[in-house]
Design a protein that fits this description.
It is built from five helices and eight strands; from the N terminus they run αββαββαβαββαβ. It is α+β, with helices and mostly antiparallel strands and about 230 residues long.
Length: about 230
């Protein structure tokens, strides 16, 4: 019986004190000028001979890629490539009048050097026109900014945790279950009038502008957040 009492007493003595948990979150952010432009060059042709259409689309895409492949300031990528079939019926009948096709090809050019990209777009306009333009942050710039503001987020997290601990009468805190989140990538798309021109006309009838549209990026919010549980001590 004495042994049982001693065991119960020891359990009471060594029983851990209940811990007080608080969840804390903090973030740091910075507006950054977008430093990379993404230009989609497009060509669309309509006709009745799909092989001829594809041959011309292929030639245009090949010419554009050849034009920029040796320029280290440019990143080139093949975009959409497709052909659609259209069946035309005689009026008020189900009899087929003719079958036509629409062939489309795209080349995407990316660069942090806007002057080089503009020069490339101007040189390529005989083969392909601007379909769309978007801007974003290059990977290097995003990582650089995130590294700079990460310490700000950490300092803010610790400051909040310290304020909570002192305000509730505790001497300090211990961090548990920390989660760090970087910015989500995104881009601001700015469609240009040239996109409508390139899809509304064929190579035989289009009057391509000799000058490329202006390239001016906006600003993007880069954010880093730190969250987690703290144990008040």
């Amino acid at each position: 019986m004495a042994f049982a009492q001693t065991n119960a007493e020891s359990q009471r003595i060594f029983k851990p004190e209940p811990e007080s948990y608080v969840r804390v979150g903090a973030e740091a952010y910075r507006e950054v000028r977008e430093d990379r432009a993404n230009v989609t060059l497009s060509k669309q042709l309509d006709g009745e001979d799909q092989r001829t259409l594809l041959r011309e689309i292929n030639l245009a895409m090949r010419n554009v890629v050849e034009l920029g492949k040796d320029n280290s300031a440019l990143e080139l990528e093949t975009g959409s490539y497709s052909i659609r079939r259209h069946v035309h019926y005689k009026k008020d009948t189900k009899e087929i009048d003719k079958i036509t096709y629409t062939a489309t090809g795209q080349v995407i050019a990316r660069s942090r050097n806007f002057e080089e990209l503009l020069a490339f777009v101007e040189a390529a306009h005989e083969d392909m026109l601007v379909g769309s333009i978007s801007f974003d942050l290059s990977t290097d710039l995003r990582r650089q900014v995130e590294a700079e503001i990460l310490q700000e987020a950490i300092d803010s997290f610790r400051s909040k945790a310290d304020t909570i601990a002192q305000g509730l009468g505790y001497e300090g805190f211990e961090v548990r279950n920390v989660e760090v989140k970087d910015s989500e990538s995104g881009s601001v798309i700015r469609p240009m009038r040239a996109a409508a021109m390139s899809f509304a006309t064929t190579a035989d009838t289009a009057e391509s502008p000799s000058a490329a549209p202006p390239l001016e990026g906006g600003k993007q919010l880069v954010k880093v957040s730190v969250s987690g549980q703290i144990v008040l001590k």
